[in-house]
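Q: What residues go here?
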């Protein structure tokens, strides 16, 4: 058998269902609680029915007698103590309202049909006088007395009022749930099932709106869109002439994302050094794990083109993590800085930007500006680009990811280009204003 369409309550939570099943297995089926059937479907007792089918117990069935309004009202009354959140009750209220409205609409249609039939076949004048009303009652019975007075059937009104007082929620939640069902029915079902609350859905929508605005603002501020090639870093960098890049600013995958950090670093970093002008600079973000530091130093300390500066530190205070027991939480990342005696002086005229520790909050998902796990803050990108380049300089990022560094360079009127091989990252970069180009 199937659920009746009026049985609009969500499925029991697994733990509640488990307790119901254990109770019936231990104590047997309570014959005082029949499973009500209405028009061929289970109106009440759906979970008891499922348990009985699973464990091979024969339940008691009983036909429900009454109108549609009686049936939906019965469902609401018998489930009033269900352990539902306010959001779930709002979702149930929306569906109950829809059912009641449908019943009222059908009743109104039947009312009009009966009045039309009465006028056509029996009564030659409109049913407005006591005599004509009496004639209609004589033909159709007492039911017509509820119909000839208009569409406000007293029985319906009373039932609807009872339904409205049943919901353990408020009208605002009900309105929100109604809008959600119309605009995003799949999320409405998640609210009804208890997977999400209306408050969570509202917060998620606010974040999504902020994220969309963040992306749109990025695109509005760009005059020359950065070009991003679908390529690995080594192949892409090899296409440049030696000593042709003014700045390499990049955030390559960390040791947690590659099989062998030493081999990975050696595959592209020597090429990057070779392609950068002696007058230029290189900034490379990396994790602060000893193995990762060692992998970079094994390359950087064996080249003689650039001076390896004491690493910059990007630190952030807006993420806490788990309280540590054996070691400290890591709330910073290293930025390797390479320059030469021929490099142009840094433009660090803003006092708090002249220090090797750059204290800037990480992108925050609640603010809508976090599009990737390891995304760097826009402010950090602006600072490093302003410090080390001027307009029309060539800025290259061989690990573009979501495009933060290139977009900052483009907004500052630098020539910005780079590459990446992740389709997911490239989609985000493209959405933010980068132009994706094939191999």
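A:
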């Amino acid at each position: 058998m199937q659920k009746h369409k009026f049985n609009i309550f969500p499925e029991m939570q697994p733990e509640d269902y488990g307790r119901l099943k254990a109770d019936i297995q231990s104590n047997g089926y309570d014959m005082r609680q029949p499973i009500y059937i209405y028009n061929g479907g289970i109106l009440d007792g759906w979970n008891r029915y499922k348990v009985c089918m699973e464990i091979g117990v024969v339940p008691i069935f009983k036909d429900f007698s009454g109108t549609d309004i009686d049936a939906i009202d019965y469902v609401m009354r018998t489930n009033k103590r269900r352990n539902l959140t306010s959001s779930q009750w709002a979702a149930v209220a929306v569906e109950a309202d829809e059912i009641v409205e449908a019943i009222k609409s059908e009743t109104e249609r039947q009312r009009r049909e009966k009045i039309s039939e009465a006028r056509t076949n029996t009564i030659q004048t409109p049913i407005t006088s006591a005599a004509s009303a009496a004639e209609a009652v004589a033909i159709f019975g007492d039911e017509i007395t509820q119909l000839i007075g208009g569409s406000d059937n007293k029985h319906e009104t009373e039932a609807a009022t009872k339904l409205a007082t049943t919901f353990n929620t408020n009208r605002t939640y009900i309105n929100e749930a109604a809008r959600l069902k119309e605009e995003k029915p799949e999320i409405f079902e998640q609210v009804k099932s208890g997977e999400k609350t209306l408050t969570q859905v509202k917060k998620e929508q606010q974040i999504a709106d902020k994220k969309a605005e963040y992306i749109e603002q990025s695109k509005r501020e760009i005059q020359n869109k950065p070009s991003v090639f679908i390529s690995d870093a080594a192949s892409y960098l090899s296409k440049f002439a030696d000593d042709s890049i003014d700045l390499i600013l990049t955030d390559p995958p960390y040791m947690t994302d590659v099989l062998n950090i030493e081999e990975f670093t050696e595959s592209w970093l020597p090429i990057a050094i070779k392609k950068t002008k002696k007058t230029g600079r290189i900034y490379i973000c990396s994790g602060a794990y000893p193995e990762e530091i060692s992998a970079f130093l094994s390359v950087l300390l064996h080249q003689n083109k650039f001076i390896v500066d004491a690493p910059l530190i990007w630190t952030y205070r807006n993420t806490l993590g788990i309280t540590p027991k054996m070691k400290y939480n890591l709330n910073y990342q290293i930025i390797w800085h390479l320059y030469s005696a021929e490099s142009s002086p840094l433009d660090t005229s803003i006092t708090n930007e002249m220090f090797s520790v750059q204290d800037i909050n990480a992108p925050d998902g609640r603010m809508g500006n976090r599009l990737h796990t390891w995304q760097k803050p826009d402010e950090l990108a602006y600072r490093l680009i302003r410090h080390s380049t001027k307009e029309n300089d060539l800025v290259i990022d061989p690990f573009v990811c979501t495009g933060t560094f290139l977009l900052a360079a483009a907004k500052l009127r630098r020539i910005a280009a780079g590459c990446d091989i992740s389709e997911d990252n490239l989609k985000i970069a493209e959405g933010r204003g980068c132009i994706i180009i094939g191999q």
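A: Context that may help when evaluating the design: Residues 247 and 395 are 5 Å apart (CA to CA). The longest strand covers residues 276-286.
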